[in-house]
Amino acid sequence: MDYVMKKTFPEVVYLNGEWLRQEHATISVFDRGFIFGDGLYEVIPFYSGKFFLKDAHLNRLRYGLNQVHIDFDVSRLKPVLEEAVTKVKLGEQDGAVYIQITRGVAPRTHYYPENVTPTILVYAFPVALKGFDKRFVDVLITEDYRWHRCDIKATSLIANVAMNDEAIKNGFHETILHRQGVITEGSHSSIFFVVNNEVYTHPEGHYILPGITRKAVIDLCKKLDVVIHEDPLKIDQLSEVDEVFLTGTTTQILGVKSMIMNGEVCFKKQEAGEITKRLQHAFIALTAQ
Ligand code: PDD
């Protein structure tokens, strides 16, 4: 998480209809987000104060809310997002807005309680979004032991955090996950492979988050006439892979230098490949529009 400029609390946050100093923004211990991780989140980037792919992020949030039957009209967030950027005086800067919606406060039950008002939290924070194309990172590979609905951007991220913590503690940038040898995605990023100048990424479905940046990169491939396959890749195919890169809202497009599993090197390169670089440059142009 070295891309986050300052690991401090935001000064102000929006909680359930009002902007408060963060130290005064508190929720009930019976909030189902706290008790069960029963909530969803989104992270929407802004470049020079201007949101990037905002509607795509809000549509994914709407999809997730429908899937878990949380009744909240996402369009109500639109003015709050604009306020979030101006409240923290990031109008001309790069950053992101974090949105979290939990089912709300109710006596603890192992089913969805009725007539509960969702808890809404929004805040903006600065992110160093420039310079990602100069970085080249090492990643760890481990078994994907998350649940089978990774398409829902749920706040219950204990498996993601546990798997990524192993990478961070051992000096890696990210943990890449596999199910029975099939590479799915990163703990907090999507993954792409280049083989013989053609690009591969895991198809959408229940095993990956439908990454907004992933989709933007797929569209860029099409625009640049780079053949793109939404097909999974297995660990034992990594020896045939020419380039690997990660994508995500704050990750953007990050070249991968090495992939290590159980101490064995599965992939290693000296510098980012040509297709990675082309996509990075096209992405920079897109975010500057
Ligand atoms: N993470 N896969 C997972 C599991 C993720 O958590 C993320 C994003 C991605 C990339 O998706 P997108 O391009 O929409 O950011 C893929 C966010 C940023 C986070 O958890 O903070």
Any overview of this molecule?
This protein has 6 helices and 16 strands. It is an alpha+beta fold. Strands 7, 8, 9, 10, 11, 12, 13, 14, 15 and 16 form a 10-stranded mixed sheet that branches. Strands 2-1-6-5-3-4 form a 6-stranded antiparallel sheet. The radius of gyration is 19 Å and the shape is globular. The structure holds N-(5'-phosphopyridoxyl)-D-alanine. Residues 43, 185, 188-190, 209, 211-214, 247-250 line the site of N-(5'-phosphopyridoxyl)-D-alanine. N-(5'-phosphopyridoxyl)-D-alanine binds at residues 43, 185, 188-190, 209, 211-214, 247-250. Belongs to the class-IV pyridoxal-phosphate-dependent aminotransferase family.
Question: Spans with pLDDT under 50 lasting ≥5 residues?
Answer: none
Distance between the termini: 26 Å
Q: What is the helix/strand order?
A: EEHEEHHEEEHEEEEHEEEEEH
State the helical fraction.
10-25%
Rounded average pLDDT: 96
Total individual domains: 2
Catalogue the ligands: N-(5'-phosphopyridoxyl)-D-alanine
Beta-strand content estimate: 25-35%
Shape: globular
CATH architecture of the largest domain: Alpha-Beta Barrel
Number of strands: 16
Largest sheet, in brief, is: 10 strands, mixed
Radius of gyration: 19 Å
The DSSP helix count reads 6
InterPro entries: Aminotrans_IV, Aminotransferase-like, BCAT-like_C, BCAT-like_N, Class-IV_PLP-Dep_Aminotrnsfr
Keywords: Aminotransferase, Pyridoxal phosphate, Transferase
Pfam families: Aminotran_4 (PF01063)
GO biological process, one term: amino acid biosynthetic process
